[in-house]
Amino acid sequence: MSYLDTGLWFAGILGEAIAIAFLLYRRIFRNLPVFSLFLVWTIVSDAAMMILSRQFAARDPHFYTRIYMVEISLDFCMQFAVLVELAWSVLRPIRAALPRRTILVISALLLLVGSVLWPIAGKLTLPGPTHQWHNLMQLQQASSMLRVLFVLVLAGFSQLLAIGWRDRELQVATGLGFYSLISLGAAILHTHHLGVDTYHRVDQIVAGSYFCSLLYWLFSFAQKEAPRQEFTPKMESFLLAVSGAARSNRIALEELRKSTK
User: CB–CB of 230/168 below 8 Å?
Assistant: First the structure.
């Protein structure tokens, strides 16, 4: 590990620790508990993987690879949960009027979009030592694409959703989206036959982009959040109508099932 790698690692740990302090100080964790837990998880996983890499990466690469695959899988689950939380938090002004299962609908919609992105991600994924490894790398790329698309939709419909750049949801999504966009660019470069040094430099750029996202979060969290704007009457009526139609369809389906028994 080079001095730059070590420096980026320590800088990332420090940035995450400061970000968590801001989340606690500004009480942001109350609205975004999953994102707060994600930063804690990242510190723990980064520290653990650093220790394990020094102990097993060269001595027992198969064991280290298995641990790495588990870590990536858990990281994907955490980041997916963050996207669900952000989408749910955006609906905060009318959340009390929505059905309790709305958060499950949001999760299903994100999974549906992810399934559409899955074959595209496969073209950006290099063949791995095993089929399981290849699928996991493909999942990582699909997750990055989903996060980029999420922030683009959030920013593109920000006026309709009554959010701006001073709202925490858009700030968190922007940081994740920037890091994910650089990760996708790195994945495209990795599909070319790069030298070992060039390959490693690309990975360092990805690590640097995550540190830039941390700096953006630190700057954003240091500022007071703008008061949450209410939806326009038309947008509120539309969202409630959509949720109401979904609830009515579910009830009708349940009644149909009961009548056929």
Answer: no
Instruction: Quick: pLDDT tens for 2-11.
Output: 788 889 889 9
pTM for the whole structure: 0.86
* H or E, element range at 234: helix 233-260
Distance, CA of 156 to CA of 260 (rounded, Å) = 45
Contact between residue 99 and residue 36 where contact means Cβ atoms under 8 Å apart: no
Question: Which position has the token pair 């989206």?
Answer: 177
Closest Cα partner for 166 from 13, 28, 24?
Answer: 28
Is 56 exposed, middle or buried (CB count within 10 Å of its CB: 0-12, 13-18, 19+)?
A: middle
Question: Which CA distances in Å does 254 have to 32, 100, 188, 249?
Answer: 33, 17, 46, 9
Q: Is the pLDDT at 193 greater than 70, yes or no? A: no
CB atoms under 10 Å from CB of 89, counted, come to 19
